[in-house]
Design a protein that fits this description.
heterodimer, A: 117 residues, mainly beta, four-stranded antiparallel sheet, globular, B: 113 residues, six-stranded mixed sheet, five-stranded antiparallel sheet, 57% strand
Chain lengths: 117, 113
């Protein structure tokens, strides 16, 4: 259980275009999802916290107008990289929080490799 | 300011031996800790977690130890297998009500046959 599906796994786009990444919880309802970015050989950096039905909370230094997050349903959150530039090339990973018997767990999507040319 | 640190970027271990991955944190309010395994170009996979009310949690070959006074946790893998070779991230959360995770920088484990 607690599976998150992330698509696409790889995308190459031209500078100036926008790219949408989807994150779906397959077997549970995810009221909260998280979007991370990972640069080569570095840790996962939280970009924003996405709550169903409300605005996302962005971490310091993350441009909310550039990285649009929509969490319109309990099973889907999307990250749109607008007007992409080569420096946006990175590995983006979504995560969803789910309830366990005693605590919460966090499950991750398989990631999206974005290359902006 | 890195609140979660993994000071060893890499670790090499012989197959069958024990792998010990370490993690330190600075925020004493963290009370839920998790270890994830990650392969290149894939999302992290959950391994094991521990609540701050415990000092040890074991699941098969994986054991996590928590030393709250030292703000230190470690993941022990025994016996280590070549398939364990990956990057391991520790993560911490402010109360287990499910706030965001703060990740360490990761340790690349290489298990030699």
């Amino acid at each position: 259980g607690a599976v998150v599906s992330q698509h696409p796994s790889r995308v190459i786009c031209k500078s100036g275009t926008s790219v949408k990444i989807e994150c779906r919880s397959l077997d549970f309802q995810a009221t909260t999802m998280f979007w991370y970015r990972q640069f080569p050989k570095q840790s996962l950096m939280l970009m924003a916290t996405s709550n169903e039905g409300s605005k996302a909370t962005y971490e310091q230094g993350v441009e909310k107008d550039k990285f649009l997050i929509n969490h319109a349903s309990l099973t889907l959150s999307t990250l749109t990289v607008t007007s992409a530039h080569p420096e946006d090339s990175s590995f983006y990973i979504c995560s969803a929080r789910y309830r366990t018997e005693a605590n919460y767990g966090y499950t991750f999507g398989s990631g999206t490799r974005l290359t902006v040319v | 300011d890195q609140q979660v640190k993994q000071n060893s970027p890499s670790l090499s271990v012989q197959e069958g031996r024990i792998s010990i991955l370490n993690c330190d944190y600075t925020n004493s309010m963290f009370d839920y800790f998790l270890w994830y395994k990650k392969y290149p170009a894939e999302g992290p996979t959950f391994l094991i977690s521990i609540s701050s009310i415990k000092d040890k949690n074991e699941d098969g070959r994986f054991t996590v130890f928590l030393n709250k006074s030292a703000k230190h946790l470690s993941l022990h893998i025994v016996p280590s297998q070549p398939g364990d070779s990956a990057v391991y991230f520790c993560a911490a959360s402010l109360n287990n009500a499910g706030n965001m995770l703060t990740f360490g920088g990761g340790t690349r484990l290489m298990v030699k046959p």
